[in-house]
Give the backbone structure.
Amino acid sequence: MAETVEAPAVTRISHWIGGRRVEGASGRTGPVFNPATGRQTGAVDFASAEEVDAAVQAAKEAFPAWRATSLARRAELFFRIRELLHERRDALAEILVREHGKVFSDALGEVTRGLEVVEFCCGLPSLLKSEYSEQASTGIDVYSIRQPLGVVAGITPFNFPVMVPMWMWAPALACGNTFVLKPSEKDPTASLWTAELLQEAGVPDGVFNVVMGDKVAVDAVLEHPEIAAVSFVGSTPIARYVYETATARGKRCQALGGAKNHMIVLPDADIDMAADAAVSAAYGSAGERCMAVSMLVAVGDVAEPLLAAIRERIPKVKVGDGMDPSSEMGPLVTAEHRDKVASYLDEGDVLVDGREGAPDEGFFLLPSLIDNVKPGMRAYDDEIFGPVLGITRVATYEEAVRLVNESPYGNGTAIFTRDGGVARQFQFDVTAGMVGINVPIPVPVAYYSFGGWKASLFGDRHIYGPEGIDFYTRGKVVTSRWPDPATSRVDLGFPQTR
Ligand code: NAD
């Protein structure tokens, strides 16, 4: 008798508009894979401009009531969202593992760091407090207020499918805006899951919408006249395009781009600590982090012992399916991306080639190491975004800082040293937005803001934290007088304060 082989289930992943799932009508979809097996698990709808417009209209309709919702009620909803997310964080982390590929503990870390932004937003009544000057002029008081922008949009990358959307929707909603999210088409399910959770928490329909898709959906967002602001996180060429297109259409925009993060190790550093940090920051999440360390800059005679310590650690990194609790590093997001990352191992002094011994099934590449990587080489100039660590050797601290400062990117950087004076000088000298001192991945806590310099951020406001609140609100200044009608007179002069 012939054996029946069941076709693997492929789930349809649709939009979320006006408080319900809406199946796409454009006829275009994209595949979603489980990177650990290489099998397709989902088909995500790609929105047309009309579908993006439907989401914007839902957000526009919801805006007046959401904006008028008291701060106390909004804060209460945020506490509820926080509780539900906290209770269900394991389920959410599992979705990340199955579509992104990162290991479960790392996925839980992502959810937790995102949750910190939601927790920050629970304090929204304090965050939205403004200033008041009594008696600015005789009988005149002046005060400022911060008001929401209206409908705002977020466009997010594949590598943090929960945390990066939270950087956007949490402060946007806290400030009284309504939101349209266009998540990465590679791992979109978490956004739909979030939409359902927000609804369950009591967020009114239309306040949070999700449109799935590709460039067509992004362009429809950028062109839409009813969208007041766009937050983007992704690669530098698309960040630049989004920033230029959105601002040319009068929108406020913050567009965070790619990175090439250097970690400098000085001769006085603790070698074991620096090696642990380099291996963790280069290979965690298979190097698919915008704050991953991808270039190690060894100063003076630290290079050989540091390299030896790293080479000793690499074979011990356990690579496998992210749901296996013993796995420390998972696969890359797609076969195409894995192959692109692997192509960097075709040249240079490759000390460890992660193609050797990688599992056949799934999109795996093992931790890889290239020595003597220098500006002008592809492995130095490009953001590889995979488990490939490059090492360069320089003679002095000054040379090391010059390398970092001459990089077109300026996201994160780190220095490992025991010398407080040099560390302090480094924080003064370096042209990057986030600096770690003996900390390899210096992602700011939720009450500071996240953002790079140079080609790592287009726009003038960093994301989440105080700058996030600033981004999602606009100021108004009121000059007020409650005069005695008996003192009223015509005066054509410019208002004076004295
Ligand atoms: P990506 O730029 O390919 O995609 C980001 C978003 O843009 C996605 O929603 C995608 O659908 C959309 N997009 C892709 N191509 C487009 C096009 N031609 N026109 C319009 N929209 C388009 O980035 P990715 O591969 O999903 O994510 C990885 C990148 O994101 C890396 O460069 C990484 O450094 C960067 N990143 C930066 C930060 C940061 O905070 N600076 C954080 C996370 C990721």
